[in-house]
Each structure stands twice: as structure tokens, then as C-alpha cells.
Amino acid sequence: xxxxxxxxxxxxxxxxxxxxxxxxxxxxxxxxxxxxxxxxxxxxxxxxxxxxxxxxxxxxxxxxxxxxxxxxxxxxxxxxxxxxxxxxxxxxxxxxxxxxxxxxxxxxxxxxxxxxxxxxxxxxxxxxxxxxxxxxxxxxxxxxxxxxxxxxxxxxxxxxxxxxxxxxxxxxxxxxxxxxxxxxxxxxxxxxxxxxxxxxxxxxxxxxxxxxxxxxxxxxxxxxxxxxxxxxxxxxxxxxxxxxxxxxxxxxxxxxxxxxxxxxxxxxxxxxxxxxxxxxxxxxxxxxxxxxxxxxxxxxxxxxxxxxxxxxxxxxxxxxxxxxxxxxxxxxxxxxxxxxxxxxxxxxxx
Length: 350
Hints:
Blueprint: H1 3-14, E1 17-18, H2 19-28, H3 34-37, H4 50-53, H5 55-71, E2 78-83, H6 89-97, H7 102-107, E3 108-113, H8 117-127, E4 132-134, E5 146-151, E6 160-165, E7 168-176, E8 182-188, E9 202-205, H9 207-223, E10 225-234, E11 244-247, E12 250-252, E13 262-264, E14 267-268, H10 269-277, E15 282-287, H11 288-294, H12 297-307, H13 312-323, E16 332-338
Parallel strand pairs: 2-3, 2-5, 3-4, 5-10, 10-14
Antiparallel strand pairs: 1-7, 6-7, 6-9, 7-8, 10-16, 11-12, 11-13, 15-16
Helix pairs in contact: 5-6, 9-10, 12-13
């Protein structure tokens, strides 16, 4: 039985489900979930991420991690972890760039947090046996400073949706229409949202994003270190429906093909930062363009162009895609959570 039919049966038996529950089924169902069975990343897949656009992205993050280690006092052992590592390209580029800091590379104990068996298999092919693999951030070691990287992870963590109606806030659910097809519906909101907005306004909350941030914030406060979270989303509180499904690089109806498309929502960075700070960590945020600019991506692009003049046009196009305001530069944000008493590179106050 396909996921669509099994979801319909669950709804007939138990009633409509929240949007975050629907997302979890679509992404992680063991039989038919997108990440559990058929993740397709890259130009030939359903979506492309920054590490696949250019090696510059991962190289700069690798040097960022090495400088974090230096500012932490060059500990003899540091946990270098990536969550949601995709096909392993980012960590591969991070480790290659880290060869410029051999003492950091020797101190780094590499951990990958991955829930997708197909993606873990790709990572093992690309990275070999050096990393350790776990399925949750809670499984990472807690006895050394942590340098944590996550690129486009928050957007995969499910969110609930609420719609402001004339009668007040209602939670958006996934149920069945008269024809037995998946359809959105509403129920009275269980939460006292306490927020006024015009009818038709959609508000999203992402408890799983906040839970991750709280886990990281507590760890950073105890262990020391920094977490770099790069994703598309808002740097300030806002409203709007950001749920989308991507298949073959095109947006499709989120209810049309459960398990066959990647479902995402925007990262709720204000809530993420607040959750980490509540556990004793510090937090800062800027656009991806500003962050990569502070890491001197332009200088790196010039060096690559000089080394490979035949690829200069391609390198410039990659730089544009990563940093331009109408590409990834402004929509994507770089959020840094870190332990008190120091500032990670790129996040110094001007």
C-alpha cells in the first residue's frame, strides 16, 4: 500500500493530522518516506544545496571551524559534527580545507548526525571510515568542545500551521475531502496564541526546530563551542505560509505526492535563537551573503579564477548564486549559537 493510501487510512481511523505530523510521515516513513527511501539531492535530483553549487562554500566553513578551534584555545580534542549532511559533500570540503590547519585536523573527532539510511550510505562512500555516525544530536559526545555545522537542516524539521479566521485562530490539519483525497482543513487552536492578526493570516510554529536549538544551546553552554546553522528563513518574527514541496527542482502541491517530494518550511530563526539563549548560549545572525563576505569568499573566488582561468565564468556564476540578493544571498541566513566568553569568526561586532 502506497504512503498516500496508508495516510488516508490513518486519517479515517484516527482523524485529521497536524501539518507537522503529515510532514514527518512524508519525510521519514520507513517504507515510503522521502529521506528514508529516495532522497534526491543535486542537479539531477529534486533540489540543490550550497555545497553542490561550489566547493568555496564548504572550504570557507572548514576554515571557519579551524579558527573556532583556535579561539577556543586549541583543545586537544574537539567534536566536529555535521547534522543533515546530505551526500557528504560539505564535510568532505570542510576536511580538505582543514588540511591548512593540521593541528585542528588532528584534534577533530568527526561525527555525522543522519537519520536517512540512503544518505548515510553515500556519506560513507565519500568520507570513508573516519567519521562516527549517530541518529540524533543527543547521541553526540558531551566531554569535549563542540563545533557543529548544519546546512539546510532546520527547514526539514516539521512545523505546525495556524490560520486566523473571523472566529479566531484555527490549526491547519491534513484530512480527507468528500472524494477521499488528502485535503487541508481546520480545527479550533489548542494553543492560546495571544497574537492578533487580520483574518487569512497564517502563523507557523516549529517545536522541533526549537528543541534542536535548546539541545545545542545546553551543550554549548556546558561543553563550549559553536554551532553554525545555515538555512532559508526569517531573521525577525513574521507570518506567512512557507510550506512547500519540491520535486525535480519545481514546486508541487504538498499534498499531491506524499513521500515522493521534499517537504520544507522556513527556519524560524528568532525562536531558534531564543531557545538556545534560554539554555545559556549566545546567538547571532546575518545573511548568508554577509557571512560569506566576512569569510572573504570574493578573495577565494579570485584565487580559483587565477588557478583555473578556463573555469572563471563558472566560478563567478557560483559566487553570484551563493551571495547575490536575488539568489541565495539574502533569503538564506547564517545563525551562530556559541558558548559565552568568546566570538566565533565572522560574527564579531563591526
